[in-house]
Amino acid sequence: MSGGVYGGDEVGAIIFDVGHQSLRVGYGGEDCPKAEIPTSLGVWEDALDNADQTNPQSSKKHYNIDVTAIQVRRKDMEIVSMVKDGMIEDWDMFEHLAEYTYKQRLHALSEHHPILMSECPWNTRPKREKLLELMFEKFNVPAMYICKNAVLAAYANGRSTAMVVDSGATHTSAVPVHDGYVITQGIVKSPLGGDFITMQCRQFFEEKNIELTPACLISSKDVVRERDPPRWTKKPGLQPTSSWLNYMVREVLQDFQMNCLQVADNPYDEDAANALPMKHFEFPTGYNDDYGAIRLMIPEALFDPSNVKGVGTSILGVGPLVTTSVGMCDMDIRPSLYGSVVVTGGNSCLQGFSDRLNRDLASKTPPSMRLKIISANSLNERRFGAWIGGSILSSLGSFQQMWLSRHEYEESGKIILDRCT
User: Fold this and answer.
1) pTM for this structure?
2) SMART domains recorded for this chain (predicted)?
């Protein structure tokens, strides 16, 4: 395909970066995504008017998509995630989400823009084929390319060879990238991520009998003194499903995470934690308090899971993930991996994350190796690392011949996927 078709200024590529928490989407060449849409959708069913009650097909599924629609309470609406283990699981939901994205958020026609999709390094061949088929046959995109999110995160930080440490909602992974290719045998994953931190926060507040009520269920509240019981009134309305309630409570907890939690410079020490300044936090109900040592204790699990109840000794902290992954790669490329440890993902926005990783790795890196942690200064660059890499890649002139065109797809079928390594 000639670079002129899609490489011109007139038609920009659209970058889709699918994560467990959200879909980041926007135009190639821009600094940040145009929209960030939750990958959890509100799902509810309506019985059709002339329906045969014995026929399970007689009800129609509806989807509430995006932040505002999800917050609308419905008696029978469940919140369902379309992503599992970093891979798209529910294709019907993905199709609805993509349609919504084109029409409501990008205001673009899918047949006018080539798309670059990110995928997790362990994505399976059948899922990649399904994605190719959906985008070409349902959305009629003119061209597309699928690229590993770790490779894109490395590109976003100006590296083609790097050790990408991605700490997201469901897991933390160390993925070695060499010359733009993922070294599959070196990938190491840990199931500790943002959701685990949220669960730890929830347990802490439940033990303290602090009520976790989302703002959308509160009609009014009074100002109360620190640590006084909250005084608030509930909004009248339908009783929501437990999955909806859990999703909304999770948002309150994530707000607490981003505002209060901090990673300690050294392994957790209660005396040092108590010496740190406390942080004030107010819940939607009006209850407010200052938090001290707990701010460091909860995120410590990411780096040292050995002290956490219910976590097996086989689960590695972030530092050992990196050293294990490097150890599984060829001797020749180990120096370049240690010299470019790229930190990305939502958890990397926790204050002190990169500094602690640097400290943990410095004591384990062989003396002959030079260690360098690469962590973008702005939080958005860390959260949207893979998207930004896609934005850079799609606007490079040298990339334009890499697109898989619809013409090639119609001619050769799914075998063209072999070009997306």
Assistant:
1) 0.93
2) ACTIN (SM00268)
DSSP secondary structure code for residue 310 in this structure: T
- Which amino acid, one-letter code, is at 158? G
pLDDT of residue 190: 94
Q: Give the residue from 289, 286, 281, 288 showing the smallest Cα distance to 223.
A: 286
pLDDT score, position 296: 94
Q: What is the model's pLDDT at position 48?
A: 64
Which residue(s) pair with 116 in the sheet? 15, 145
Query: In angstroms, rounded to a whole number, what is the distance separating the alpha carbons of residues 329 and 327?
Result: 6
Name the nearest CA neighbour of 390 among 408, 402, 378: 402
Q: What is the pLDDT of residue 1?
A: 40
**Cα 268-269-275 angle, rounded to 5 deg:** 115
Crossing angle (nearest 10°) for helices 149-156 and 385-394: 80
Distance CA 205, CA 199 (A): 10
User: Cα–Cα distance between 146 and 23 in angstroms, integer?
Assistant: 15
Tell me the two tokens of residue 204.
């802490």
**What's the 3-state SS for 323-377?**
HHHHHCCCHHHHHHHHCCEEEECHHHHCECHHHHHHHHHHCCCCCCCCCCEECCC
Q: In the prediction, which pLDDT does 226 show?
A: 94
Helices and strands counted in the chain (H then E): 16, 21
Secondary structure E strands in 102-191 = 115-119, 143-148, 162-167, 172-178, 181-182, 188-190
Pick the closest to residue 224 from 179, 268, 284, 166 (CA basis).
284
Residue numbers of the chain with a pLDDT score lower than 50: 1-10, 51
Scored b (16 or more CB within 10 A) or e, 72-90 reads ebbeebbbbbbbeebbbeb
Q: What integer pLDDT is reported at residue 4 of this predicted model?
A: 40
Query: 118 pairs with which residues across the strands?
Result: 147
pLDDT of residue 3: 38
Angle between helices 242-260 and 194-207 (to 10 degrees): 100
